[in-house]
Amino acid sequence: MKTFQEKYPSVEFKLLQGGYEVNAAAVRAREADLGFISTDTAEDLEYDILYEDELLAVLPSNHPLAEKDIVSVKDLAKEPFILMDELGYSYPLAAFKDAGVQPRNLKLTVYDDYAVMEMVRQDLGVSMLYERILRGFDDGLIIRPIKERPKRNVAICWKDRKTLSLAARKFLEHVEDSNIFVFN
Description:
Blueprint: H1 2-7, H2 20-28, E1 35-38, E2 46-60, H3 73-77, E3 80-84, H4 91-98, E4 105-110, H5 113-121, E5 127-130, H6 131-134, E6 141-145, E7 151-158, H7 166-178
């Protein structure tokens, strides 16, 4: 956004905060011109994929699963689990379902990634979080890839490109041209 603001200083942004389903609903209702979503919530929206984000196992430093190089969803289902509530569709719960298991002990549900990390650090359970969230915040945690490699695609979406405001079209073009989100 900084480079866009430098190029178009008179454009004002109104940022709405919410989960991907909330963002998609705001775009559908034309309460927002553009939204950041997961492609799983895009049903009737147009979108450009910005990046792919993989779920990783998040373990306390003294946890027995930390001895493994790769952890399976079934391994995680046997442990006290801390769920990140994503205000709608849950990728960790979908990963459990796809593996044919349910978490045996859904210990805590929280609404903040960093709270999940702190609870895992305090040895309250294990979790799954996205690679991008964990970058730079993994001190005191053991991070392992998950055998099944659950992922999400994050995208920028809109209802109808032809009806976007000039500012929204320019921002969308800026995002598409600059690849600012494509840094896997």
